[in-house]
TrEMBL record:
Keyword Endoplasmic reticulum: no
Protein name: Adenine DNA glycosylase
Presence of the UniProt keyword DNA damage in the record: yes
Gene from which this protein is expressed: Mutyh
Domain called HhH-GPD: residue spans: 60-212
Known function: Involved in oxidative DNA damage repair. Initiates repair of A*oxoG to C*G by removing the inappropriately paired adenine base from the DNA backbone. Possesses both adenine and 2-OH-A DNA glycosylase activities. Adenine glycosylase active on G-A mispairs.
Organism listed in the record: Ptilorrhoa leucosticta
Cellular component annotations (GO), alphabetically ordered: mitochondrion; nucleus
Length: 413
């Protein structure tokens, strides 16, 4: 078994833990933001509906800002107020409502999980974090803990990006905060800290503190309700630790939770010395040729061809202009020829590369991909018969395009 971490990185004094819980909850009661999912979780008497309301919010909030989520959440809950309603929706409807929120597999998995609850679990949400994680696709440890504590009052902690930042600062944890060893310690810590009588509020308070006070770049330590428990703040006030270590100091260089000896405390950074992460891999560069095929519809208005992406992988099931991934170092002429060949397969008739008009390039950053769309257009005379053996495709007006399940990247195109 690994050696227990040094005392300075733990919450081992019960009186301190009690005081920290009290201060944090009192602050949360005074200062929490008014958010639609909080109102639902607080007032909904039915446990399954409460669980569903929290679940939807947690999935939408993964990787997405609160301000962006609010409108999507309201529309979603209006359209599918219960698990049963969501289970009956089509994936197309889910993708349409999700369009613009990003990370599209989240919506799809949410719907698959709702179907599973209805068909295999008699419509009843699992009630503990362990069962939620085990039984629901797309529900990881964090989401399971959040649903179980907020909806069902289970005294279980949660660790998300905000909690990582707050805990690393409270306990001066400077080892790589994305490493499994540190993450495990943070989960232990969250489970020790969580308030037994108000676990959902406590977890939300800790996340709220990270989102509004203990923010990444310029934390508002002066207003922080737990500053008297914060070692990073203390260290900032009192400077470097004394030359002679006291009983709470770790052995230099040996501690698995301290910053590496090669990257010691930087006094110019203050509390933002924590948390630290190993350098991120740069996003992969990709080029994709895409063509806006345009025809005159029956009322004379322009219509555009969109085709559906495969049902798995990046942007699964969404619609896009016919597109083709390109090798990185192709000459422009060659890119055009490859795109023309690709379009020919769609249209079942030759397409001359020189008839493709270059419009420009659009850059879109996905979490791990730096995507450049090389955009062409091709106005068509007369009708085109598309090969039904290929992916689903349809002609849409501009308004229909915007109402379809298309990604933000395609809207930019
Ligand atoms: Fe974060 Fe500052 Fe509060 Fe410490 S005192 S928890 S660094 S806001």
């Amino acid at each position: 078994a690994p050696a227990p971490p040094p005392a300075r990185h733990l919450f081992s004094d019960p009186a301190e833990v009690e005081a920290l819980r009290g201060n944090l909850l009192a602050w949360y009661d005074r200062c929490k933001r008014d958010l639609p999912w909080r109102a639902l979780a607080a007032t909904e008497p039915d446990a399954d509906r409460r669980g569903y309301a929290v679940w939807v919010s947690e999935i939408m909030l993964q990787q997405t800002q609160v301000a962006t989520v609010i409108d999507y959440y309201k529309r979603w809950m209006q359209k599918w107020p219960t698990l049963q309603a969501l289970a009956q929706a089509s994936l197309e409807e889910v993708n349409e409502l999700w369009a613009g929120l990003g990370y599209y597999s989240r919506g799809k998995r949410l719907q698959e999980a709702a179907r599973k609850v209805v068909s295999e679990l008699a419509g009843q949400m699992p009630r503990t974090a362990e069962d939620l994680q085990k039984l629901l696709p797309g529900v990881g440890r964090y989401t399971a803990g959040a649903i179980a504590s907020i909806s069902y009052g289970q005294a279980t902690g949660v660790v998300d990006g905000n909690v990582i930042r707050v805990l690393c600062r409270l306990r001066c944890i400077g080892a790589d905060s994305s490493s499994p060893a540190v993450i495990d310690r943070l989960w232990d810590m969250a489970n020790v800290l969580v308030d037994r009588s108000r676990p959902g509020d406590f977890n939300q308070a800790l996340m709220e503190l990270g989102a509004t006070v203990c923010v990444p770049k310029a934390p508002l330590c002066g207003e922080c309700p737990v500053k008297q428990h914060c070692q990073a703040w203390r260290r900032k006030l009192f400077g470097n630790p004394p030359k002679v270590p006291d009983v709470e100091d770790c052995g230099v260089g040996d501690c698995p939770l301290c910053p590496p000896a090669t990257e010691p405390w930087d006094s110019s950074l203050g509390v933002t010395n924590f948390p630290r992460k190993a350098a991120k891999k740069p996003p992969r560069a990709m080029r994709t040729a895409t063509c806006v095929l345009e025809r005159r519809g029956c009322h004379g208005a322009p219509e555009y061809l969109i085709v559906q992406r495969p049902s798995s992988g990046l942007l699964a099931g969404l619609w896009e202009f016919p597109s083709l991934p390109l090798a990185q170092d192709l000459q422009e002429e060659r890119e055009r020829e490859e795109l023309a060949d690709h379009l020919q397969a769609w249209m079942g008739r030759p397409v001359a590369a020189k008839s493709l008009r270059f419009i420009g390039e659009v850059i879109h950053i996905f979490s791990h991909i730096h995507q450049t769309y090389v955009v062409y257009s091709l106005p068509l005379d007369g009708d085109v018969t598309l090969d039904p053996a290929l992916s689903p495709s349809r002609w849409v007006t501009e308004d229909e395009f915007h109402a379809s399940a298309v990604s933000t990247a395609m809207k930019k195109v």
